C-alpha cells in the first residue's frame, strides 16, 4: 500500500471488541473491553495495530467497521446463507433445518434475562453491510485519522424471534431444542449505530 501511495484502509472488525459492557446499546464511544473468544481477540488486536499505524503515520485514513450480526443473501441468490463447511452463525443452521439437512436446531440457552429467555442480537442484512463499506470509502476521502463505525440495524431480535420469522417466511416449521448456554455468551448484544445511520456519517437505513 505504501508503494502504491494508498493511505486509506477499511477494516472489517466486530462488535465483539466491546467485550461484555454493562449497558446496551453499544455505541462507538464505548471503550473496547475484553473479548471472550479468539475471534474477538484477533479483531481487537488488528484494531490496535491499525491505530498504532495511524499514530505513527498521521496522513493515513482508517475506518474500523464494527459489525454486529450479518445475515441474509444477495438478491440474485448466487451468494447467501449456504456455507460449504460448518456454519458459524444462526441463520444457516435455521435454513438447513428448514430444508431437511438437519433434524433440529440447538438453541443455546433459554434462561437469559430476556423476554423469551433466549439471547438477543442485532442482525444486519449483508446488502446493508455492503452499503456501509461504500459509504465508509466515500467518507474516508481527505479525512485523516481513525474513524469507528458500528454497523447494525439498532434493533434486537431473540433467537426465537428469528426462528419464528424464518418459519413464517418459508411456510415450514423449524424444529429446535434447547441446549446449555456457553458461560461467555452475553444475553444481549445491540448496536447503537449513532455514526452508522442516516443523517449522521454513514448513509442508509439498515433493514430490520
UniProtKB/TrEMBL annotation:
It comes from the Bacteria. Its cofactor is NAD(+). The keyword DNA damage does not apply. Keywords: Carbohydrate metabolism, Galactose metabolism, Isomerase, NAD. GO terms for cellular component: cytosol. Residues 1-152 form the NAD-dependent epimerase/dehydratase domain. Signal peptide: none annotated. Pathway: Carbohydrate metabolism; galactose metabolism. Its EC number is 5.1.3.2. It catalyses: UDP-alpha-D-glucose = UDP-alpha-D-galactose. One of its GO terms (biological process) is galactose metabolic process. GO terms for molecular function: UDP-glucose 4-epimerase activity. Belongs to the NAD(P)-dependent epimerase/dehydratase family. PANTHER family: UDP-GLUCOSE 4-EPIMERASE (PTHR43725:SF47). This is UDP-glucose 4-epimerase. It comes from Raoultella planticola (Klebsiella planticola). The lineage of its organism: Bacteria, Pseudomonadati, Pseudomonadota, Gammaproteobacteria, Enterobacterales.
Amino acid at each position: 500500500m505504501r508503494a502504491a501511495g494508498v493511505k486509506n484502509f477499511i477494516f472489517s472488525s466486530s462488535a465483539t471488541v466491546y467485550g461484555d459492557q454493562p449497558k446496551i446499546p453499544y455505541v462507538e464511544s464505548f471503550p473496547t473491553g475484553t473479548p471472550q473468544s479468539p475471534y474477538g481477540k484477533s479483531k481487537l488486536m488488528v484494531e490496535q495495530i491499525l491505530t498504532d499505524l495511524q499514530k505513527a503515520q498521521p496522513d493515513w485514513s482508517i475506518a474500523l467497521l464494527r459489525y454486529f450480526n450479518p445475515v441474509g443473501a444477495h438478491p440474485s441468490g448466487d451468494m447467501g446463507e449456504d456455507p460449504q463447511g460448518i456454519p458459524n452463525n444462526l441463520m444457516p443452521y435455521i435454513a438447513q433445518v428448514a430444508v431437511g439437512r438437519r433434524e433440529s436446531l440447538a438453541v443455546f440457552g433459554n434462561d437469559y434475562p430476556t423476554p423469551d429467555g433466549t439471547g438477543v442480537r442485532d442482525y444486519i442484512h449483508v446488502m446493508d453491510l455492503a452499503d456501509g463499506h461504500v459509504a465508509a470509502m466515500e467518507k474516508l476521502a481527505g479525512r485523516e485519522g481513525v474513524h469507528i463505525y458500528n454497523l447494525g440495524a439498532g434493533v434486537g431480535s431473540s433467537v426465537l424471534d428469528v426462528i419464528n420469522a424464518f418459519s413464517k417466511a418459508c411456510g415450514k416449521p423449524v424444529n429446535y431444542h434447547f441446549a446449555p448456554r456457553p458461560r461467555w455468551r452475553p444475553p444481549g448484544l445491540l448496536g447503537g449505530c449513532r455514526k452508522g445511520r442516516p443523517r449522521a456519517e454513514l448513509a442508509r437505513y439498515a433493514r430490520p
